[in-house]
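Forgive a beginner's question, but would it be possible to get any protein sequence you like and the tokens describing how it folds?
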Amino acid sequence: MGLSTHVLDTMNGTPAAGMQVALYTTQDESATLVNSFTLNQDGRNPDGMLYDHASLRVGTYRLVFDVAGYFKARGVALPEPNFLNRVSLDFGVAHADQHYHVPLLVSPWSYSTYRGS
């Protein structure tokens, strides 16, 4: 239970190790930084859950993934300006007693996400 994320690099078929991610709480148009971290070798937060079961609250959140920085660090030649820079996912938690997993599948030109388990 709680909140977690996982990023897969679909261009290379690997976890997105080394990608920078930031987590925010949001309200209306304002966002407050909660945590920023670098994904581990499995494409996950090295500290585990972003919020554990006891800390997750009903509300709105934003995850921001530094896609361009990640692919540039991997040596991918990106055009200027690059197609994707940062991917920002705004989502809501309606049931704090459930697990919310927010995976990102990403390449330099596309991404997809869903509510995982």
